Each structure stands twice: as structure tokens, then as C-alpha cells.
Amino acid sequence: MPARFGSETMSKQKEEKTNVMRVLDQKKIPYTPHAYPVGDAAPDGAAVARLLGQEPTSVFKTLVAKGASGGYYVFDIPVEATLDLKKAARAVGEKSVSMLPSKQLLPLTGYVHGGCSPVGMKKRFPTLFHESCLELETMCVSAGKVGFQVELNPAALIALVGAATADLIAEG
């Protein structure tokens, strides 16, 4: 039988299940999977939003920070926004927080830079979403692998990861 290429390859890529998708399936949380093309480097969040045809305000990036006390925290904010470290520290009751260096991300969370998701980390960390997610019908977050996103109800996602919401982004 001759090898097949083209649409079969694309359909297989779209059918690929990430660990995040398996967790959502197991918890019976409805979601829409999205795949986007990846080149040599992971595209930034704004590019991902464009590739998915989504508004950047509804596509969230997952950031991991370390508090002055040594604790780790997960912050999910819109892709075009910047995390305000002072607001983030106040929201988690820390004196200060600093971004986790990329090289520490994989060993701590199980995810690589550009593919970090609030769902399915190696360990559950205190997680906060920017409060704007509450105004959305659906939001997108990484499906745990570069090139894949999941779109789902914000309240279901917040409940799943035991998160809270707060004002976390820098103004202007």
C-alpha cells in the first residue's frame, strides 16, 4: 500500500491528544482543540491568537513565578498583556515574586516554554487568572504542547485547577 501524505497527516495532527486534553476528557470538561503551525521557534502569544483566528484578549499565556518565601505560583494572563509583578505578589500574599527562568520550567512543571498550561502540571501550584477571563464565554490556554491550544469555559477551567482571579496585568 503506498504511503499517504497531505490531508491524512493534517488530520492525524489535529487528532493528537495532549495530556491536558486527556485530563479535560477524564473530568468531562468540554473543550475545543486547536492546532497551529510551528516553525523553528514557538510563536509568541499574539501570533498564536492570529493563527487561531482568536481575539488576543481571549488567549491566555501561563507564567510561572517564584515568591520571596520560595513558593511557586502560576499566573494566566492575556497574551498581549504584561504580568505586573507587584500586583501578582500582592494577590498571592508574597513580599515579591520573580519570573521563573526558562531552564527551570520543564523540571518544575513538566512543560516547556511556549507549551506551559495551567492544567496537568507535575504538582499543583497556587494559580491565578487575570480577572478579565470572567467576562469571556470561552478562553484559550496551551494544551501543554507547542502547537496546540484548548478553548474552554473560564469558570470550568478555574474550578478544575482550583484557581482564583485577580487584577494581575500592568497598565498601558
**Number of helical segments with 4 or more residues:** 6
Q: Please, what is the oligomeric state? A: single chain
Strand content: 15-25%
- Average pLDDT, to the nearest integer? 91
Helix content: 25-40%
Helix-and-strand structural type: alpha/beta
Strand order of the largest sheet: 4-2-3-5-8
* CA-CA gap between termini: 59 Å
Mind describing the biggest β-sheet? 5 strands, mixed
H and E order: HHEHEEHEHEEEHE
Report the count of strand segments. 8
- Spans with pLDDT under 50 lasting ≥5 residues? 1-14
Topology:
Layout: H1 7-15, H2 19-26, E1 32-35, H3 45-52, E2 60-67, E3 72-78, H4 85-92, E4 97-99, H5 102-109, E5 127-130, E6 139-142, E7 148-152, H6 154-161, E8 164-166
Parallel strand pairs: 3-5, 5-8
Antiparallel strand pairs: 1-7, 2-3, 2-4, 6-7
Provide an overview of this structure.
It is a single chain. By secondary structure, the chain is of the alpha/beta class. Helices cover 28% and strands 22% of the residues. The protein is built from six helices and eight strands; from the N terminus they run H-H-E-H-E-E-H-E-H-E-E-E-H-E. A five-stranded mixed sheet has the order 4-2-3-5-8. Strands 1-7-6 form a three-stranded antiparallel sheet. A hairpin with a 4-residue loop joins strand 2 and strand 3. The radius of gyration is 16 Å and the shape is globular. The termini are far apart. The model is unreliable at 1-14 (pLDDT under 50).
Quick summary:
The protein is of the alpha/beta class. The protein is 28% helix and 22% strand.
